[in-house]
Protein backbone atom coordinates (compact mmCIF):
# COMPACT_ATOMS: atom_id res chain seq x y z
CA UNK A 1 0.00 0.00 0.00
CA UNK A 2 1.31 3.44 -0.91
CA UNK A 3 0.37 5.95 1.81
CA UNK A 4 0.23 9.69 1.28
CA UNK A 5 -0.69 12.25 3.89
CA UNK A 6 -1.48 15.85 3.00
CA UNK A 7 -3.23 18.85 4.40
CA UNK A 8 -6.40 19.81 2.53
CA UNK A 9 -4.76 22.72 0.72
CA UNK A 10 -2.02 20.44 -0.66
CA UNK A 11 -4.36 17.77 -2.05
CA UNK A 12 -4.44 17.56 -5.82
CA UNK A 13 -7.81 17.82 -7.50
CA UNK A 14 -7.57 14.12 -8.41
CA UNK A 15 -6.72 13.08 -4.84
CA UNK A 16 -9.63 15.10 -3.48
CA UNK A 17 -11.97 13.63 -6.09
CA UNK A 18 -10.85 10.07 -5.26
CA UNK A 19 -11.35 10.66 -1.52
CA UNK A 20 -14.81 12.18 -1.97
CA UNK A 21 -15.82 9.43 -4.41
CA UNK A 22 -14.80 6.67 -1.97
CA UNK A 23 -16.54 8.47 0.90
CA UNK A 24 -19.73 8.70 -1.18
CA UNK A 25 -19.48 5.05 -2.27
CA UNK A 26 -19.23 3.80 1.31
CA UNK A 27 -21.14 6.29 3.45
CA UNK A 28 -23.90 7.40 1.07
CA UNK A 29 -24.45 4.45 -1.26
CA UNK A 30 -23.37 1.36 0.71
CA UNK A 31 -24.62 2.55 4.12
CA UNK A 32 -27.64 4.36 2.60
CA UNK A 33 -26.90 7.39 4.75
CA UNK A 34 -28.00 10.80 3.55
CA UNK A 35 -25.79 13.33 5.33
CA UNK A 36 -23.73 16.46 4.74
CA UNK A 37 -20.32 14.96 4.00
CA UNK A 38 -18.72 18.34 3.26
CA UNK A 39 -19.03 19.43 6.89
CA UNK A 40 -16.36 22.13 6.94
CA UNK A 41 -13.83 20.00 8.82
CA UNK A 42 -11.90 18.86 5.73
CA UNK A 43 -10.12 22.21 5.46
CA UNK A 44 -8.82 21.86 9.04
CA UNK A 45 -7.64 18.28 8.52
CA UNK A 46 -4.90 16.12 7.18
CA UNK A 47 -5.94 13.44 4.69
CA UNK A 48 -4.43 9.96 4.64
CA UNK A 49 -4.86 8.05 1.40
CA UNK A 50 -3.81 4.45 0.80
CA UNK A 51 -3.46 3.41 -2.84
CA UNK A 52 -2.78 -0.04 -4.23
CA UNK A 53 -0.03 -0.81 -6.77
CA UNK A 54 -2.32 0.30 -9.61
CA UNK A 55 -2.90 3.67 -7.92
CA UNK A 56 -6.51 2.94 -6.96
CA UNK A 57 -7.62 4.44 -3.65
CA UNK A 58 -8.36 1.58 -1.23
CA UNK A 59 -8.29 3.32 2.17
CA UNK A 60 -8.85 6.79 3.52
CA UNK A 61 -9.21 8.73 6.74
CA UNK A 62 -8.98 12.31 7.82
CA UNK A 63 -7.22 13.62 10.89
CA UNK A 64 -9.08 16.61 12.24
CA UNK A 65 -7.06 19.21 14.12
CA UNK A 66 -7.65 19.67 17.86
CA UNK A 67 -10.35 22.23 18.60
CA UNK A 68 -12.36 21.63 15.41
CA UNK A 69 -14.61 18.72 16.38
CA UNK A 70 -13.19 17.88 19.81
CA UNK A 71 -10.55 19.34 22.11
CA UNK A 72 -8.30 16.44 21.04
CA UNK A 73 -7.16 15.53 17.53
CA UNK A 74 -9.63 13.16 15.90
CA UNK A 75 -9.70 10.42 13.29
CA UNK A 76 -12.76 10.46 11.08
CA UNK A 77 -14.28 9.37 7.77
CA UNK A 78 -12.40 6.09 8.23
CA UNK A 79 -13.06 3.84 5.23
CA UNK A 80 -11.71 0.99 3.20
CA UNK A 81 -13.03 0.14 -0.23
CA UNK A 82 -15.47 -2.77 -0.35
CA UNK A 83 -12.93 -4.68 -2.48
CA UNK A 84 -10.31 -4.46 0.30
CA UNK A 85 -12.42 -5.61 3.23
CA UNK A 86 -11.20 -8.58 5.23
CA UNK A 87 -7.55 -8.04 4.26
CA UNK A 88 -6.44 -6.24 7.43
CA UNK A 89 -6.22 -2.95 5.56
CA UNK A 90 -8.52 -1.23 8.06
CA UNK A 91 -6.09 -2.04 10.88
CA UNK A 92 -3.15 -0.77 8.84
CA UNK A 93 -5.12 2.41 8.07
CA UNK A 94 -5.74 3.08 11.77
CA UNK A 95 -2.09 2.38 12.61
CA UNK A 96 -0.97 4.86 9.93
CA UNK A 97 -3.44 7.46 11.21
CA UNK A 98 -2.31 7.03 14.80
CA UNK A 99 1.32 7.42 13.75
CA UNK A 100 0.46 10.70 11.96
CA UNK A 101 -1.38 11.97 15.05
CA UNK A 102 1.55 11.10 17.30
CA UNK A 103 3.96 12.88 14.96
CA UNK A 104 1.82 16.03 14.85
CA UNK A 105 0.65 16.07 18.48
CA UNK A 106 3.00 13.95 20.60
CA UNK A 107 1.55 12.83 23.89
CA UNK A 108 -2.02 13.92 23.07
CA UNK A 109 -5.10 11.77 23.50
CA UNK A 110 -7.16 11.09 20.37
CA UNK A 111 -10.98 11.15 20.33
CA UNK A 112 -13.27 9.59 17.74
CA UNK A 113 -16.97 9.36 17.07
CA UNK A 114 -17.14 5.69 16.11
CA UNK A 115 -19.99 3.76 14.62
CA UNK A 116 -21.11 1.67 17.59
CA UNK A 117 -20.90 -1.56 15.60
CA UNK A 118 -17.14 -0.94 15.23
CA UNK A 119 -16.43 -0.45 18.94
CA UNK A 120 -14.42 -3.69 19.24
CA UNK A 121 -12.36 -2.79 16.15
CA UNK A 122 -11.36 0.57 17.64
CA UNK A 123 -10.85 -0.97 21.09
CA UNK A 124 -8.23 -3.25 19.52
CA UNK A 125 -6.28 -0.03 18.76
CA UNK A 126 -6.46 1.26 22.32
CA UNK A 127 -9.67 3.31 22.15
CA UNK A 128 -12.01 3.19 25.15
CA UNK A 129 -15.69 4.10 25.03
CA UNK A 130 -16.83 7.24 26.83
CA UNK A 131 -20.56 7.66 27.40
CA UNK A 132 -23.68 6.22 25.89
CA UNK A 133 -24.55 5.61 22.27
CA UNK A 134 -25.95 8.52 20.28
CA UNK A 135 -27.49 8.69 16.84
CA UNK A 136 -25.58 10.54 14.12
CA UNK A 137 -27.02 10.58 10.61
CA UNK A 138 -29.36 7.73 11.56
CA UNK A 139 -26.53 5.42 12.72
CA UNK A 140 -25.66 4.53 16.35
CA UNK A 141 -22.29 6.01 17.34
CA UNK A 142 -20.23 6.27 20.51
CA UNK A 143 -17.35 8.50 21.52
CA UNK A 144 -14.09 6.72 22.16
CA UNK A 145 -10.78 8.04 23.44
CA UNK A 146 -7.27 6.69 23.08
CA UNK A 147 -5.18 7.91 25.99
CA UNK A 148 -1.93 9.74 25.40
Characterization of this structure:
The protein is of the alpha+beta class. It contains 3 helices and 7 strands. The chain has helices spanning 13-30, 89-104, 119-123, and strands at residues 2-7, 45-51, 57-64, 74-80, 110-115, 127-136, 139-146.
Largest beta-sheet details: 4 strands, antiparallel
Mean pLDDT: 94
Please give the count of helices.
3
- Give the overall shape: globular
Q: What's the architecture, going by CATH?
A: 3-Layer(aba) Sandwich
Spans of 5+ residues with little confidence (pLDDT < 50)? Answer: none
Count of discrete structural domains: 1
The CATH topology label is Aminopeptidase
List the helices and strands and how they pair.
Layout: E1 2-7, H1 13-30, E2 45-51, E3 57-64, E4 74-80, H2 89-104, E5 110-115, H3 119-123, E6 127-136, E7 139-146
Antiparallel strand pairs: 1-2, 2-3, 3-4, 5-7, 6-7
Short description:
By secondary structure, the protein is an alpha+beta fold. It has 3 helices and 7 strands.
Amino acid sequence: MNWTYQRFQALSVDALYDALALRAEVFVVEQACVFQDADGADRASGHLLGRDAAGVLQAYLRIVDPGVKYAEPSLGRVITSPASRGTGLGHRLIDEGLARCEAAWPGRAIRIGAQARLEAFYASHGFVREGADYIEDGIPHCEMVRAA
